[in-house]
Design brief:
Organism (chains A, B): Dactylosporangium siamense
Radius of gyration of chain A: 23 Å
InterPro entries (chains A, B): DNA-bd_dom_put_sf, MerR-type_HTH_dom, MerR_fam
CATH topology of the largest domain in chain A: Multidrug-efflux Transporter Regulator, Chain: A, Domain 2
Largest interface: A-B, 42 and 43 residues
Order of helices and strands of chain A: HHEEHHH
CATH class of the largest domain in chain A: Mainly Alpha
Keywords (chains A, B): DNA-binding
Largest sheet of chain A: 2 strands, antiparallel
GO molecular function (chains A, B): DNA binding; DNA-binding transcription factor activity
Oligomer: homodimer
Number of domains of chain A: 2
Helix content of chain A: 55-70%
Protein name (chains A, B): MerR family transcriptional regulator
DNA sequence: CTAAAACCTGACGCTGACGTCAGAGGCAAG
DNA sequence: CTTGCCTCTGACGTCAGCGTCAGGTTTTAG
């Protein structure tokens, strides 16, 4: 598979894939002419990288954790890193849930004020 | 309250507070000599802003939503914005939970491989 | 064979939420 | 009065994850 196809299948840009390689996150074989070639498994790997990025991990951290995700083997240090990232994500979830609940309360209050007409509705009805 | 005290109480930097003012998120009265003065309520406001930043909202979006958080009144457009941000946060929570679960699985597998000695433990015991 | 599409390597641009430095003015304490 | 801390206004620096453009090669479709 070449880079364009991988980009489509993984839902990222070609530029992103080259960036991942630059960061050591995604290896690529090369054809004699220098074009990158990826195995099918690369799709899952890219998706995983995206998932970790979305969770707020940096390239460097992902680079440290990726091997042990695939080998299920980690040094105590890496294990500690894993646990710390897990806890961070957990805390982030808790915070986000609180924010969501707060927004829900605001939405409920604002909706009520609209339906009850207890606020001046000078906004356009169109 | 002056800016330094507010910064400490809200747990942010002085620079951040000036930035919030620049973005229109935080008003400030001025002493005749030009120093910013904040009421006690500013602490909560700053904390709220921080919470929204942490949820991935931009300054612009926060600026649009802050008034209706305090007035509990919103135009339909603003209400739609609120709902869309809420849903985005909800989706983010779902994704983060999946990532956390994946990390949990990795941690479990790696811990097992260590305790079972089923992997070469050539890492330093110190 | 040829034109279009895909790929290559640099390398600069972008964005947002601040950090940081410079130079100058205020403010309570001794 | 002056010492030392707080504050002020610019204004440039940072960092990460790419976007984008330039100029050239490779692969593919017809």
């Amino acid at each position: 598979m070449r880079i364009g196809e991988l980009a489509v299948k993984a839902g990222v840009s070609v530029r992103a894939l080259r960036y991942y390689e630059e960061q050591g996150l995604l290896g690529a074989a090369r054809t004699p002419s220098g074009q990158r070639t990826y195995p099918d498994g690369a799709v899952d790997r890219v998706v995983l990288v995206q998932q970790l990025y979305a969770a707020g991990l940096s390239s460097r951290r992902i680079l440290e954790l990726l091997p042990c995700v695939y080998t299920s083997y980690a040094t105590p240090q890496t294990l500690a890193l894993l646990a710390s990232e897990r806890d961070r994500i957990d805390a982030q979830i808790t915070g986000l849930a609180a924010t969501r609940d707060r927004l829900d309360a605001v939405i409920a209050a604002a909706t009520a004020s609209v339906t009850d007409g207890c606020a001046p509705n000078h906004y356009p009805e169109s």
